[in-house]
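Name: Bifunctional protein FolD
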Amino acid sequence: MAENLSGKALATAIRADVAERAAKLTASGVTPALAIVVATDDDGTLWYVRSIVKAAEKVGVRAVIHTVENPTVEAIAATLTELAADDGTHGIILQTPLPKGVSLTDLAHLIPAAKDIDGASPVSAGNLVIGTPAFAPATAEACLELLAHHGVPLSGKRAVVIGRSAVVGKPVAQLLLRADATVTVTHSRTVDLPAVARTAEVLVVAIGRADFVTAEHVAPGAVVIDVGTNTAADGSLVGDVEAASVDGVAGVLSPVPGGVGPVTTALLLRHAVAAAEGGF
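Structure predicted for Bifunctional protein FolD:
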């Protein structure tokens, strides 16, 4: 049975640090403030956003949901522009999914890098690639934080990323490279994907398909990070990895829920506080 790579203890530690830093800022007259721009009425998205607000309140970060009632590109852009100019707003998240016909790439450039706490803008992405200071996408960073917390070495290791999204796949590949891993990025059109995945000592799965990765994708003893969050037919949350299948092959496996997810939320709050402090 694979070792459980839980993120709960790490998330607790990050939140404790965030609360301490937020208290110091508030005592100095600066309350860390996070704006979450929402342009959808999707129930799952709204639940997630409200969970961020509750988590923020517990650590002393003021989080405000800005709902765009008429979610055209122009209306969303106007909200982002207003928040970008507001000195009292330290961090901005443009929550996805966005309405049909509206792309994150159409709008993310309106978030200044210093407030882009989820690494969505082209400037943040470029800085991540060349290694200059930037907020990395929180989910991608959570994968690396989780590995470090559990003492998983990356230098010289063969890492395979399944998924090439701008939100997780590409940035987690950059972060793995920065940690001196040798990285292969794969996707749905990779020829003989299971064989390529089996070359990994560290396998990060972020393809957005429930139970996509099975035992045939995993080398014996590999470290497997499951980034997926999918809703099963019975309403439960499942990952991109078929845990029951992989558990007997992998050496280490992050659970869903309880793995990358809680660390991601904690990192968003840490980024918000760092932005209020004036750094990355």
